[in-house]
Design goal:
This protein is mainly beta. The relative contact order is 0.13.
Length: 345
Amino acid sequence: MAQDGSAGRRRAFIGSFTAAGGPGLVTAEVAPGTGALTLVFAVQDVPDPSYLALSPDGHMLYAVSETAEGAVAAYRVTGQRLAPAGPPVPVAGSGPTHLSLYDGHVLTANYGCGSVTAVPVRPDGTLAGAPSGRLQHTGSGPHDRRQRGPHAHQVQPDPSGRWAVSVDLGTDSVRVCTLTDGSPAVHREIALRPGSGPRHLAFHPAGEHAYVVNELTPTVTVCRWDAASGLLKPLTEVPVLPGAPAGDAYPSGIVVSPDGRFVWTATRGEDVLSVFAVEADGLRLTATVPCGGRWPRALAEHDGFLYAANERSGDVTWFAVDRATGVPRYDGSVRVPAASCVVFG
């Protein structure tokens, strides 16, 4: 966890949509024991920093700029403040929705055009002046409006660090990739159920399973993961709701508990968090609870607490998690207009 050297305070970082009135990038202090967030600093120098990633040492923060032009920006973390570490770097892709650090690069998933971009990271954590490579996804799905072409929504390394995994909502598939001369290259593409609309993937801490939350059907696909061969094998699909949704139901975030016993998802429209018990090669839905706001876009776990970034109600809510059942209990919220994600060191 990144810490303020003078006060010893833990920190969280919150992204938001500036086009919808968000404050940009926000730093918050995390209260020990209660998980409560207190906003301390904001910077708004790039539009729509909707998703964030922190360097392993906590000294650098990276943000996508989810715009038609698409960019990634780097910030130095100094105490409670964020300072731009060079100009934003265009990613040669539209609407980047996610980013991660992999093999000396920042990778961005570009939703608008359905691609993954690699931007080299210098030894000091700053970004090189241009991308080193870009992988264009191809394909489509049966959903007429949402799947006419590829829409890469997430890219992240697997627990072994050998592979980068890209989740594409438009093509109903997950691509397992490597970097070849700084350019993303497909090792294997795994097809999921047509029309499911995969959005995000979370790995089990044991490294042998992965869970894909699907946006176009409110389900989670349980997969077996083989890091040695880079193979993702779909096993079963589990609903995130106990019955048919009353209206719109678009799952968004997915998190696995650090001990591997539970999986949590967030579902927009229904505005709920779902709790799953992890079983051998499967999941069992055990509970749903209100997210405490509207349109939970992202979900994060830290130190026994669960956090939801609620875009349309403009807040971040937090929940204490029952260690025996995994069920979250609402504990509080903080106002962040157009909140889109929250990350911890």
